[in-house]
From TrEMBL, chain A:
<dbReference type="InterPro" id="IPR038157">
    <property type="entry name" value="FeoA_core_dom"/>
</dbReference>
<feature type="domain" description="Ferrous iron transporter FeoA-like">
    <location>
        <begin position="3"/>
        <end position="74"/>
    </location>
</feature>
<dbReference type="InterPro" id="IPR052713">
    <property type="entry name" value="FeoA"/>
</dbReference>
<protein>
    <submittedName>
        <fullName>Iron transporter</fullName>
    </submittedName>
</protein>
<keyword id="KW-0408">Iron</keyword>
<dbReference type="InterPro" id="IPR007167">
    <property type="entry name" value="Fe-transptr_FeoA-like"/>
</dbReference>
<dbReference type="InterPro" id="IPR008988">
    <property type="entry name" value="Transcriptional_repressor_C"/>
</dbReference>
<dbReference type="Pfam" id="PF04023">
    <property type="entry name" value="FeoA"/>
</dbReference>
TrEMBL record, chain B:
<keyword id="KW-0410">Iron transport</keyword>
<comment type="function">
    <text>Probable transporter of a GTP-driven Fe(2+) uptake system.</text>
</comment>
<dbReference type="InterPro" id="IPR027417">
    <property type="entry name" value="P-loop_NTPase"/>
</dbReference>
<feature type="transmembrane region" description="Helical">
    <location>
        <begin position="681"/>
        <end position="706"/>
    </location>
</feature>
<feature type="transmembrane region" description="Helical">
    <location>
        <begin position="510"/>
        <end position="529"/>
    </location>
</feature>
<keyword id="KW-0547">Nucleotide-binding</keyword>
<dbReference type="InterPro" id="IPR003373">
    <property type="entry name" value="Fe2_transport_prot-B"/>
</dbReference>
<dbReference type="InterPro" id="IPR030389">
    <property type="entry name" value="G_FEOB_dom"/>
</dbReference>
<keyword id="KW-0812">Transmembrane</keyword>
Amino acid sequence: MSATVVDLKMGQRGIIKTCADDILPIKLLELGCLPGNEIEMVQIAPFKDPIYVNVNGSHIAIRRATAQLIFIDILEDA
Amino acid sequence: MSKSINVALIGNPNTGKTSVFNQLTGLKQKVGNYPGITVEKKEGICKLPRGVKAHILDLPGTYSLNTTSLDESVVVELLLNRNDKDFPDVVVVISDVENLKRNLLLFTQIKDLRIPAILVINMADRMRRKGITLDLALLEKKLDTRIALVSTRKNTGIEKIKELIADYKNLSNKPNVDTTVIDPEYFEKLKKTFPNEDLYKLWLVITQDVNFMPIEKKTIPDTASFSTKSKSELKRLQQKETILRYQFINGILKEAYKVDLQAARGFRATLDKILTHKVFGYLIFFFILLTIFQAIYDWSSYPMDFIDEQFAAASEWVKDTLPPGVFTNLIAEGILAGIGGIVIFIPQIAFLFLFIALLEESGYMSRVVFLMDRVMRPFGLSGKSVVPLISGTACAIPAVMATRNIENWKERLITILVTPFTTCSARLPVYLIIIALVIPEGRFFGLSYQALTLMLLYIIGFMAALFSAMILHRVLEIRSRTFFVIEMPNYKLPLLKNVAYTVIEKTKSFVYGAGKIILAISIVLWFLGSNGYSDRFAQAENLVKQRISENGFTTYNREDIAEKFESYRTELQTGPALSEAQLNDSLTLKMESLEFRAQRQEIASFKLENSYIGNIGKAIEPLVKPLGYDWKIGIAVLTSFAAREVFVGTLATIYSVGNDEEETIKNRMAAEVRDESDKPLFNLASGISLLLFYAFAMQCMSTLAVVKRETNSWKWPLAQLAIMSTFAYLIALIAYQILK
């Protein structure tokens, strides 16, 4: 099982591997949610939903269900 | 003189597009709606060098030309339709220097439509702090355009935009990116089928309905039949297109855009940590809500009282100055009262929009959406509905107007429809007097029953709003964006000018948009209340005088006069000594004035009873009887349509007591008995029934007028009126029948 964005802890970063592109809103792609780009968890709301991420310089809030469609490699803290 | 240049402002949200628009047009702007839909249309005129004029259209913010909402499809429809009267001669794309990469995605799409485009890079004042350097010459060359580096905050670069617009004929209209490489075979086929059309334009038309709804394909017919690819295939191609564009943009920015990442962090991260914190975030939001609430509930009461007094004085002045007659009455009691009823809302509207503009401008509103999303989701609403719903507790009118900030039309409509359930301040006078009448004094765990009842009414209001939102969310079939992606913009110090524009524009749109309807209805209500068809109405004065001379005043007035007279006598006797003659004179004068007052009140009461409204009230008595009301309450409920608090004043008139003393009205109401028995009219059953009726009924013409304006149709306010009032009637009926 590959990790998704929801597996990131606050402040942790990851590199996007693949997106479930036919279900993921096009808006996310336009905002820079594309394979190869870095994504950072900025804040997690109570009940772990929604989440606030920084992807490729775009600061956006998305719901947990959407975040689970974005597969990543978690970057270990340097 | 040549015709003016059509300019369209396009840009991502949060790039300061509205600031640029304000700077270009000043207050020469017009805000309306696109025909048939509720997307706001902002236009303005801008004077360019050499006497040329530009017609500026501020299009809704969008991230790209792939539409996912009604707002965005407005942009695409316009850009695809060369015959539209607003079709731009030149597009000005507004971008934010910190998010240039993402902003350029939209720019390249517009370039590829072969529409001349100017690039505005806004927020230049932040470059140094964020460690950004730009090679403008290189950018202009690679993007094949002209660029204006602008700071709306520092007011620089605006003249450059004007120059570039005036010079639009020299712009290139060559595309940036060759989209056909994402699937050469497919585009080859497309070209064969539609040899005369631009390929990128075709591609846009075909892909619009993948994410949202089909746009009106009036520009290129028959494209609907060209469906050789499935939706998910098209979606994959769109992703390829997006990647292709980003490759192009990254290639350029690598050379022309340098950012020192060390400088870029800090302030924003710290603020976000606090403002979206699991505990502090909510505390801060709660505190902000309290402040807003305090402002519209409490601070605005000072200017409102002032306005109220001024209009009352003006009305008196008209009555004293003009010759008495229908015309004078129309001005004093119809028109002036109506205008006063409009102006009185301005302080609340101005205060609320002052705060909303500050929240939006600073970037805080997006954090609210983040914080409240989970809470509001079960009701089909998002965090953006919180501010309107809470401010509805002061007044539904500014609250309904505040829903403009909700981009999603379905969410906005639901918020508009349910906001009038929240307990607004106009319900308070009605609640207070009825609670004082029917709820016994006493305490429950240290809280008085009366206070508890009031609190329960507030809770009931919120519950009604939330649950009807939940139902509407299921019932309403409106296609809207189903996903949730909210950009969290940078924190900015709000620009005073933008805040001021928002406040002025909202106030204007209320006064001119909803004001007409409010004025019309209040004139109608005045007419119905001060005219009657019967002889009894025409002869009111004589009939009442005759009745008084034969039977004396009503029991209540007789006792009231006697009481006031006695207390005056005691007052005189305990005061400085007077001679017998002086004393008698004073007493006679007092008696005359008391009798005159009582006579005037009885005439007013008699007139109201025999006016059209009185007739209607009597006619609907069978309808309100099962709720525990008599025709007098029926009339008060009807006149409440002007504003709920009128209820108390109307009852005062009907019971022919002065409406300036709350205690008197309350005592008079307590003394009222039912016709058929000696039981008091206002008891627990009828009181609760009335309270619940006022909690749920849509009884505010001003709210209806605003809803009409905000939804751009009579359908929704009328539905609101019908459904809320029926619901209120049924609940009040059940309550009375159970409790009686």
